[in-house]
Amino acid sequence: MPQGAPRPRRAAATIEEVARAAGVSRQTVSNALNAPQRVRPDTLARVRAAIERLGYRPDQSARALRTGARRTLGYLAPVDDPYDPNPLMAGFLEALVDAAAAAGYRLLLFRPAPGTTDARPAIDELIAARQVDGLVLADVLREDPRVAHVARTGVPFATFGRTGPGEPQHWVDIDNGAATAGVVRHLADRGHRRIAFAGPAGEALPWMAARRAGFAAETARLGLTAALPGAGSPPAAAASGSGVAQLRALLQGPDRPTAVAAGSDLTALAVYEAVRAEGLVVGRDVAVVGFHDTPLCRHLHPALSSVRLPLRAIASGLVGLLLAQIRGESVRGEGLVLSTELVVRASSG
Amino acid sequence: MPQGAPRPRRAAATIEEVARAAGVSRQTVSNALNAPQRVRPDTLARVRAAIERLGYRPDQSARALRTGARRTLGYLAPVDDPYDPNPLMAGFLEALVDAAAAAGYRLLLFRPAPGTTDARPAIDELIAARQVDGLVLADVLREDPRVAHVARTGVPFATFGRTGPGEPQHWVDIDNGAATAGVVRHLADRGHRRIAFAGPAGEALPWMAARRAGFAAETARLGLTAALPGAGSPPAAAASGSGVAQLRALLQGPDRPTAVAAGSDLTALAVYEAVRAEGLVVGRDVAVVGFHDTPLCRHLHPALSSVRLPLRAIASGLVGLLLAQIRGESVRGEGLVLSTELVVRASSG
DNA sequence: CTGTTAGCGCCTTCAT
DNA sequence: ATGAAGGCGCTAACAG
C-alpha cells in the first residue's frame, strides 16, 4: 500500500496573510469568519475585502484538527448487483450531496474493500481516521449488521430504510405500503378489478415486502381480485427470463389480471415483455405501473406510470438527522416516513 | 448557512497513547507506520500490537495538516439530465472509489451549488479549502470550461474523456470509434449489408460524434450500405417519442436496414420500440446493438448486445494519472485510450 | 473590540 | 535505532 507522498502545490492564502493585508490580527480574521457579530462593522468589511481579494478559505484540515468537526459525512455506496441494480444510486447521491452542501458538509464515498462484502472494516477505518462526522447507510435490512456495528461505535448515523426495533431510530423511509396501495386505488379508479403484483416475494427485502403487503391489504379492502405470484421471482430470475415466463403464465386465461403493479421499473419492463408475448397490448389490455420513476419510464412505449420517490426530501431528512446528532441534540422519535407520488403516464392512463 | 458546531465524540486512540502502551516514544510509533524499515523488528512488533489493540489509526486531519497530503480525490458528479441520464454513474463511481482506495485515497463527491450549472465556484471552494489532492472530471467536452479552469489552478486533475489540444493531456478515454467499428464488423460477420446508426448527430457530445464517425468509416471500408439519420435525435426527442417516429421511418421500405447500431442502451430501447411498431422482430428481422452494457440489456427481450466499457481500467487509469501528478512526476503523453468489449446477446446473435 | 497565548495530532529535522 | 523540539493553520480561552 503506497504511503505518504510529497506534494508540491502553489501556496494558498493563509489566515496570517489575510490578517496582514487587513491590518488586523489573525484572531480578528477568525472572528470575522466564525463570530461576525463580535467584530466592528468597518473592521469586518475590511477583513472581508481582504478575504475576497486573496481568495482565502480556511484550511479545512487545520480547522478540523482544531475543532474536531470534519464537516464531512460518509456514504456507504451500496454494492451494485448487476442483476438488481440500485435504481436510485445516481439521483439519490446527487440529492445527498446537495443536502449535505446546503448544511456546509461534504460527502465522502466509501465501500468495502474490493472482493469483500463486509462493510464493517471500511466503516471502522473511516471512524478511526476521524474522517467523517457521521454516516449515511442506505438499503438497510431488518437485522442489518452494519447498523448494529455503527450504533456500537457511537458515531452519528442515519439510514435510508428503517432500523431494527432495538436500534436508534434515526431513519428516513418512504411509505412503501401506502405507495402500492395508492397504485391499487389508481388502477381501481380506472376500472380494473383483477390486479396482480409483480416482484420478488419473501421478507429478505423489507421495502419489497412492504410494497407487496400494501398491495394485498388495499386489494382486499376494495374487494378486488388480487394475484400475488407466491413463488416470487428472485432478482436473478428476471435476468434469466424465467421471470417473464412466470408473468406470461399469470396473464393467460379469461380471468387474467387487467392491471399489474410492479415492484420496480425493471420488473415493469419484464411485465411489458410478458404482455407482448401474450399478444396483448400494454395500456390497452393490461395497465402497468412501475416503481422508482427511473428515466426508463419515459423511454418505454407506452410511457410507464411509476411511483416517484421524494429523493431530495429523503436526503434532507437524513442530513437533518445527522446534524441533530452531531450538535448533540438527542434525537428521539420514530423516524421519518415520507410519502411518494404516483406519476401517471400512458401505461395506466 | 449554519457554521461550526460543537461535536461530542468518544475519544479515539492517539499516537501518544499507543507510544505509552508500547513503551516507546511517539516518533517510534510514527516511524513504525511511515518508515517501518527504520524500526527494529521486535520493537516494530510491539508497536504494531499496541496499534492493533487500541484500534489506532492516525488522525487524517492532523496528518493532512502536517504533510499537506489530503489523501482525498474530488469527483465532480455530473449533472444528471433525466432525459439523458449518465448510464455509468453508479458503476463508474464504484470503480473509482475502489481504485482510489487501492491507492490509499478517498473519494469526495461534489456538485455545483443547487440551481447552478457552473461547477467552477464549487471547484474553487474545494481547492481553496485544500480538501483534495486532485480532481476527476467526467463527460468532458471539447472546449470544456471546467478543464480550462482547473488547469489554471494548477491542481492535479484527470478527465474521463479527452481534453482540448492546448490543455494538459491527462485523460483516459475509450476508443469510441473503434468500438462502433467493431459493432459494424460484428454485424457484417452476421451477414448484414444494410446497417443504420441510431443516436444524436452533431458535435456537441464528442463521444457520440466519435461513435458515429467510427460507424461511418467502417461501413465505408467494408462497402456496406450505411444509414445515418442526419437530423439526429437530440436526447429529449427520444423522450417525446419523436425519436421512435424517426426510427420507424428508417425501418420502412424494402431496402430497410437489417441491423442497427445504437449510440446508447436507452436509444437501443427506442429502436426495439420502433422495430416492433413496424411489425418486425428484434433479433430476427433486425439486429440491434447498444452501448454501455447497462443492466437494462439483460432485462430486454431479446437480450441486448452491447458495448461494455472497462470501467475498472478507466478508474485505475484516472487514479494513476492523478497519483503521478501528485508525486510530482511530470506526466507526458497523449492520454490513455482503452478498448471496449462487445458483449453479444440474442439481439444480434 | 482586539491581541496574545496555547495546543489540537502528527511528522520532520536534528541530536543522541 | 530511538528521543527531544518545532510547527503545519487554525480557533478557544483569556488579557488588554
State mean pLDDT of chain A (0 to 100 scale): 88
Distance between the termini of chain A: 57 Å
**Distinct helical segment count of chain A:** 14
Gyration radius from CA atoms of chain A, angstroms: 26 Å
Sequence stretches where pLDDT stays below 50 over 5 or more residues of chain A: 1-9, 231-240
Q: Helicity of chain A, in percent?
A: 40-55%
Shape descriptor of chain A reads elongated
Counting helices, strands and paired strands, the structural category of chain A is alpha/beta
Spatial order of the strands forming the largest sheet of chain A: 2-1-3-4-5-11
**Order of helical and strand elements of chain A:** HHHHEHEHEHEEHEHEHHEHEHEHEE
Subunit organisation of the chains: homodimer
The biggest chain-chain interface is: A-B, 86 and 87 residues
The counted number of beta strands of chain A is: 12
Overall description:
Two copies of one chain form a homodimer. Chain A is an alpha/beta fold and 349 residues long. Chain A has 14 helices and twelve strands. Chain A has helices at 15-22, 26-34, 41-54, 60-67, 89-102, 120-128, 145-153, 176-189, 206-221, 235-240, 242-250, 265-277, 296-299, 311-326, and strands spanning 72-76, 106-110, 134-138, 157-160, 171-174, 194-198, 225-227, 259-262, 287-292, 305-308, 336-338, 341-343. In chain A, the strands form two sheets. A six-stranded parallel β-sheet of chain A has the order 2-1-3-4-5-11, with helices on both faces. The first copy, chain A, has a six-stranded mixed β-sheet with strand order 7-6-8-9-10-12, with helices on both faces. The longest helix of chain A is centred in the middle third of the chain and has 16 residues, at 206-221. Chain A is elongated. At the A-B interface, helix 4, helix 5, strand 2, helix 6 and helix 12 of A face helix 4, helix 5, strand 2, helix 6 and helix 12 of B. Strand 2 (106-110) of chain A pairs antiparallel with strand 2 (106-110) of chain B, so a sheet runs across the interface. Chain A binds a DNA duplex (16 and 16 nucleotides) through helix 2 and helix 4.
